[in-house]
Design a protein that fits this description.
This protein is of the alpha/beta class. It contains ten helices and nine strands. The structure holds pyridoxal-5'-phosphate.
Length: about 270
Amino acid sequence: MHALLNAPALKNYPKDSLKSLATALFKTHQQTPFTCTNLDEWVGLVKERYHALMSPPLKPLYNATGVVLSTNLGRACLEPSHLKELELLSGYVNLEVDDTGKRANRCHLVQELLKMLFGAEDALILNNNASALVLVASVFASKAQNKETLLSYGQLVEIGGHFRAHELLDCVTNLKFVGSTNKTYLQDYQHALSPQTTLIATIHLSNFLQQGFVASVGAKELFKLATAHKILFYEDLGSLQSVPQVQKSLKHAHLVSFSADKLLGSVQGGLC
Ligand SMILES: *Cc1c(COP(=O)(O)O)cnc(C)c1O
């Protein structure tokens, strides 16, 4: 290690970064039959690794998968014109000041626009849709307050990247599962309601389809049920299909959320 870190060819490289790179390389090479035979080879390897890590990680590629919107390939592409708008960020902006120069809240910047677009009473932008899910359940059906969320067994699904919405929800709310894997009826929700229930949630099945001997309860009915019991109905839409679709969903839901970068071409975000 000492010889490597002090090699003249590595003189102009940051020592701390080299050390952690070299430690990791030594470790891998202990476990594989191939090891470098002399110092020059080690120096070359560390240099190569350093430059690979320091170069921009994203590379353009052709999408020949047949899947237009692929999470693995960056989800929805950004409009070139939107990127032009981002040039603004190379200077100072009014992120948290109002027109009078007073401290303001960044949440309000696009709130009015979102409210107008979707016909929503209120709106928030979060880091992603997963955080929207967690926020909704922790605010409106918090485990700490012994509150409960109803969710159908039919919606215990895993989306790409091992994402399971119900596991996230389970961290912040008491989940009460209703119905069965293939069939869930309105009466399942009705029977499951308790004084602790404050939220009924539905999770969009996204890339999964149930066919055949199946039954599920529509948003309209769940909204009615929730309203009648003075609790909230929340729909995780997964991604935005269209603005009218969200407007329509909001007619039968107290809360909806969706990813900002799945169908809607945006940076990572969640709209709630
Ligand atoms: C993709 C997805 C999420 C997670 O969205 P992110 O923006 O990636 O956090 C949550 N719920 C559903 C139904 C989804 O399809």
